[in-house]
Amino acid sequence: MIEIDRLVLGLQHRIRQLLDNVSMLEKEDNGNLYAAVSLRIIELELAEIQDLLDKLNRTTNNYQQQSLQTAAEFHDMTETMAELEKFDSLQVIAKEHENKIIKRDLERCNEELNSTSPTPTLSPGPCGFGRMVNVSGPKTYSLTEYGTSYPYGAWGRDANPAPGNENKYWLVVLTSSNVYGNFIRQYNSLSTIILGIEPTDTYISSSNPTTNTIQGSNMVMYANALYYNCYDTYSVCQFNLTTQSVSTVDLPSDTGYDDKFPFRHLDTTYSYTDMDFATDESGVYVIYATTSNFGNVVISKIETSNPPVLGQTWSTSLHKATATNTFMVCGVLFATRYLDKKTEQIFYSYDTKTNIERYDLKLNITKRQTNIEFLNYDPRDHLLYVYSDAYIVTYELVFQ
Fold first, then answer.
1. pLDDT tens digits, residue range 299-336?
2. If DSSP states are collapsed to H, E and C, what string results for the chain?
């Protein structure tokens, strides 16, 4: 109970008591004046009632002041709330606008993700294939004579063989730490490489690793020479199988090597794949990344003279760490990414003739093993040669 309630109740009680006392005095009246004592009691009660009235007035004034103060505070609060509501409304409107932009961007991404945009049309010239529309296979799927001992390696055919070597196949396994190799094993046919019979070994060096031996699983054979990343350098090695000699050409000094810009996906990093090598209808390319291009892919043509020479170079926006492999077809770079254990996807292309790059390709490659450590295109048979967790595999590119 608040103070004003107590004062009002007390005042009501005193007034009732005063009325009772006056009634008693009226009954005591004998025609003379009221008894002095009774009058004195009434005077005291009137004084107490006046005191209560004064207190009640003071309390009422205080409450009026508090009411006025409260009213002012309430007014201030009302104005503040109005400002907050206005600010909040602006924020809500801003957030709604931002959400609309995000929703629009997500819808656009979803449309791109679900689009079926055709792959680039490969220029006529020496190719004339039209568009790549599918990757069929695997066509070949087999372990080598090494079984599952060496999950990192490479294999294929010479993209520009000497007469008499058209049917030969080559195989390199990384026998040291799944990173380094020092010899090339050749077979006379596909059946002999699958059966692991009648191989011929050519050694780059007797020790492994050492200067100019193979580093990483990316390499190609062209005109009886193996092209690969030289051990512990940012140089390209050209090993001539006829003369058994090594020539080199340096890449830009800010080129990543020794696992700086390897291929990878969320579950696996393909060790020492800083440099990739590719063959197509026109020759040999090296694919790498540089710090000046922010770790994005750079393509350089290798002139296959002896010693090799670095030719025309193209810089792309493809971040190398987002890809798992690359290959070239008729001057167009294609990049793959890991989708899951059963599927790899060709998702990107860069046309070196038009400088047009695309991220909306969706050509799936069906895998039998989880990872693809090596992948290259052979322009002679239009097959992709793949080394996948110790298995040698081929896929056919379908054009229309």
1. 999 999 999 999 999 999 999 999 999 999 999 999 99
2. CCHHHHHHHHHHHHHHHHHHHHHHHHHHCCCCCCCHHHHHHHHHHHHHHHHHHHHHHHHHHHHHHHHHHHHHHHHHHHHHHHHHHHHHHHHHHHHHHHHHHHHHHHHHHHHHHHCCCCCCEECCCCCCCEEEEEEEEEEEEEEECCECCCCCEEEECCCCCCCCCCCCEEEEECCECCCEECEEEEECCHHHHHHCCCCEEEECCCCCCCCCCEEEEEEEEECCEEEEEECCCCEEEEEECCCCEEEEEECCCCECCCCCCCCECCCCECCCCCCEEEEECCEEEEEEEECCCCCEEEEEEEECCCCCEEEEEEEEEEEHHHCCEEEEECCEEEEEEEEECCEEEEEEEEECCCCCEECCCCEEEECCCCCCCEEEEECCCCEEEEEECCEEEEEEEEEC
